[in-house]
Each structure stands twice: as structure tokens, then as C-alpha cells.
Amino acid sequence: MRAALHQLLQAISRSAGVKSPCNPLPDPEYMLLQAWELLNYPSNGESLMKPCPARILTSALVIILVCAACVPVVTAEKEYPSSPACVNPKYPRVDFDTEYPGSITLGVSLLGVTYDGPPYRVEFTDTSAYVEGQPISSYYWDFGDGTTSTQKNPAHIYASPGTYNGMHSVTTICGADYSKKITFTIKILCSKAEAGFTSNVYQGTAPLTVQITDTSTHTPSGITTWTYRFDSTHTSNNRNPSFTFTEPGIYTITQTVSKSCPPVPLELPKATRQITVYPKVAASTVDDHTWVSVTTTTIPTLAFTTTTSATTSATAVLTPAAGASVQSTTAQNTPAGSVQQTAPPTPGTGTLSVITNPAGAQVFVDDMPWGAGPATIPNLAAGAHTLRLEMAGYQDLRVPVTITDGKASEYSLALVPVAGSAGSSSPVTLPFIAGAVIILVLAAVGAYLYTKRKKAP
């Protein structure tokens, strides 16, 4: 800077053709000092140099030229475009719209916009207005998560649910002084999962394989974890698992669904389904007798058998869960020659004979009613069926049965009374009730005789 100013003063000095008779200093240095004294000692007459009127005028001219050169630099930022429309510049009105593709929220909620999971995409559309002839020349977006954009209508994907405070500004062709901005808040929420599943079976004999099909909603893969509990020790995190129950019992399959996106609910959604596993029947034939052995468990148990004779009799016993024990029943085949048939059976079918204890229980085969027991159901298709007994005051009994082509099978089933019902009275309590009644009657008779004798003269 000093060198440039020195050159400028030399050029002015040479152009003026003035020597320095008043001071031995070189002309440029003298003129610079003279200009300094004009600025700092304008009135008190103090001077470091000898006064020289010719130099005073030249120094004043130098000051004017330097100031004129600095004015454009200082005012450069305040210069406006040469567009005639910016002679009277105006501010724009900034505004925008948003869309949330992939969200499950109908419209924009005050609580926020809900998605089942990523991507959390938000599309911004600028709707700013401006004065005619002063169009918007630049756009700026701050999305509130550390990212920005200069597009007019950007689309942005947020990494996770949350609350984001952003800003949008626009600038017209009239310069940075004529820009406007607004702030905005984007609230992104993650939906709550709804648990649910189905199974291909809900009962059967052990071993029983159960195939699970997930029916939960708002559970996209990648952020959802499924947990199934089949019993006290076996679990699975597969979405559609299968599991084989090897022991008889009543089991409850529980599904728990969790998502990794916030907010995390205080209690995870659950769904349950009950599975009943019956014991497997073991049968053996000795001396024309069929022996059936069944081990009771915590569920109703049954025993049945089928043989190759024309008629098969079987016994099934329903035992309570409490105090269950090992039981055995026997069934004796009826010789083929003693069977009386009124009509040949339909090919591919068999006959089912059901005896109930107590009699009168309603009989259902594959959920189809067949009246009260005892009942005989002819022409049942060969294969597996489900026999169900219902009677007021007794527990419902559901039994899997197998019909053999051209054979007749007889089942004798005992129902268990419901606790507290009339049928559940213990035989031991009946004598006590009868004895109490007799004592009350005798006491009443004695009181009557005593009163009558006392009134006699």
C-alpha cells in the first residue's frame, strides 16, 4: 500500500513539475508529510517542516484523490443491480407446502406425522410470492438435522423419528438485502405395532407340530422383532416359526412384538393362542382282548382302540387335572360272527357308536350335531374326526377318533362334572345329608310329643 501511494505521489509531483526548494526531503515523502500535517495540525501552526505554499495545494489534491479511490471500495456492497425493476425494490413473501409420502397419518396432525418405519421422507414445495419484475433468484433450506439444500422444491429423508426445527429463505434479483425467511418444525413419529398371529392347528395328539403365521400390523421388517414363547423353556424370534409339542398338555403360545423406532411403548403388544395336546394312545392285543394304556396329565385324557374285527368296543375316561394318575381301560373285541348288520356299509365309510355317562349328552362329530347319547352315526368317511360331547353341569369333552373303512367303532365316554354343580356332589356327602334330615325330623317329633304331654291334666 505504501509503495502504491509512493508511486502515485511521484506521478503527481512529476506532472506538476514542482521542485522541493522548501525542504531537502524527496518530493513524494514531503508531500505525504505535508498531507499528514494538514490533517493533524490544521490550525495551531505547528509543523515539522518548513512551510511551503505550493506543496500545501498539492497535498490537498492528494487527499481528495485518495478519498475518491476508496469510496467505490467501501460502497461496493451497497450497489444494486442495474435492472430497472430494482429501482424500487420490494421484499418477497416466503411460504411453502409439505407432503409426507409413506406416512399413515391422514393429513397433518398437531402431534406429528406417523410412519410405520423408514424411510421418513418429506417433500417440500416452495410457494413464495414476489413483486412483478423482481423474481426470486435463490432458495435456501435448512432441514433442522444438519443438512441444507438450495433447490426450489427439495425432498429430504430424515434418519429417524424426532422433532426437527428448520428454516426456509428466498432472495430476489435485487440482492441479498431483499430476502425473507421463515422457520418451521417437522415432527416425525413411529407407529405402534399391533400383535397377532394364527396357527394351522389348535389341538391334536402328541407329537403335535404347530405352524405359526404372523398377522401383526404396522410391523415392517428391519425394525421389528417378533418373539414367540411356546412353553417355559422354548422361544423363537422367527416371524413365522413352527414348533412341535412332544408332551400332552394345554399350552399358551404368546407373541410379543417390538419396534426399534421411538417412542417405545410402556407395555409391548402381545397376542396369545391356546394349543391342546392329547396323549398318544398305546394299544396291544392279548387273548382276543385289546389293552389300552393312557397316562393322564394336566388335561382331559382319553383311551380308545381300533382292531380288525367287525366291531370294536372301547372305553374313554375323562379325569380331572388335579390328582391325575395312570389309568388303564380294556376293550374286548366282538367276534365277527356275532355282529348283526342290517345293511352293508357304504364303501370308504365306517360306523361310530357313542355311549355317554351320564346318558343324554349332546353328540357332535366334526361340529355337526347327532342328537343325544347313546348315538350311532353310520357312513362316516374313513379317517380322522373330532368327537365332542356337551352336557349342562359337565365339562365339554373333545376326543379325536379314527374311522376305519368298513368297520364299526364304539366309544364309551364318561363326563366330568363342573365343580359346584349338582352332578359334582360326592357320594360320601349324601349319607351325611340324609342323616342330618333324619335327626331334624326326630327332633321335631320329640318336641311335639313333649309339648303335648306337658299340656295334659
Kindly summarize this structure in a few lines.
The protein has 457 residues and is of the alpha+beta class.
Structure report:
This protein is α+β, with helices and mostly antiparallel strands and 457 residues long. It is built from 4 helices and 27 strands. It is elongated.
In whole angstroms, the N-to-C terminal distance is 157 Å
Give me the count of strands.
27
- CATH superfamily of the largest domain, by name, is Carboxypeptidase-like, regulatory domain
Structural class: alpha+beta
CATH class of the largest domain: Mainly Beta
Sheet with the most strands?
5 strands, mixed
| Overall mean pLDDT | 76
Oligomer: single chain
How many distinct folded domains? 4
Q: Per the principal axes of the C-alpha atoms, what is the gross shape?
A: elongated
- What is the fold-level CATH name, i.e. the topology of the largest domain? Immunoglobulin-like
User: What would you report as the Rg, rounded to the nearest angstrom?
Assistant: 52 Å
Low-confidence stretches: 73-80, 288-342, 424-428
- Percent strand: 35-45%
Q: Could you say what the CATH architecture of the largest domain is?
A: Sandwich
The level of helicity is 10-25%
**Total helix count?**
4
Strand neighbour order, sheet with most strands = 2-8-7-4-5
Secondary-structure map:
Layout: H1 2-16, H2 27-40, H3 53-74, E1 96-99, E2 113-115, E3 120-126, E4 136-142, E5 148-149, E6 155-158, E7 162-172, E8 179-190, E9 197-199, E10 203-205, E11 208-214, E12 224-229, E13 235-236, E14 242-245, E15 249-259, E16 270-278, E17 282-286, E18 289-295, E19 311-317, E20 326-332, E21 349-357, E22 362-365, E23 368-372, E24 375-381, E25 383-390, E26 397-403, E27 408-414, H4 429-455
